[in-house]
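Annex B. Sample input.
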Amino acid sequence: MVVAKRADRFATTGCLTILIALITLLGVLVSWLWYRHWHDGHVNTERRDRAFASILKQARATADDTTHALDTSGATDTHALIGVIWRHTQAPVITYDASRREFTAKAARSAMYDEEDMLSGGGPVQVSRCLVFAYAHRSGQAWTSRVSEQDDDVCRPGTTIEGLVRLARTRISSLYVEDLTRAGVQEALDPTSRLRSYDVKSVMRRAETVTVTILLYSPGTSVDQCYRFTRPVAGDDGQGSATAVPVSSC
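Annex B, continued. Sample output.
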């Protein structure tokens, strides 16, 4: 009986020791997981903030470069001025308010950062901001600019139009010379006549180039933008690479 009691006591002591060790180990594990979660969140927040800051820094630099280009261009024509703004901002939608003598360019900008995540392994993450550039010119004064952040919804129609422009460039580039007509381009862009995102306004052939003017619509919105597409009359295979630039009107 004495031996049995001692065995029971040792077994109980051993179980308690093991239990305490497991509880301690579990506590250490939970504490480590909590720390990693806090640490990863802290690191990711800092990296995300730096990514956002880099977007704004680049946007301000773009605005400064654009105003300098506008000042030195000597251009006064609205089409030419939009071309200067587009070359620097690459904004898919650029509008002009004649009453305020102000151009507005809307563009989504993005940056990447590496996310820390113990469970998924982390990896590159993209963040974006909707930026609105405004360029104004008062009589006798230099060009001025300002940059503001807007909700993503403000830039979404422009992003859609940007995609439509890429598709139009591809389709126009692949057309043969004989198909470079208003009807031919319209059919190439909207063969089913259901998209209603493209309205081909004109096709003009001059010397060795063809210029196509198209009004593009963002579906479900009131946002549109006129673009001028230019491509050589023919390449070696009867086709040619097209370029595109926004213009004030069609």
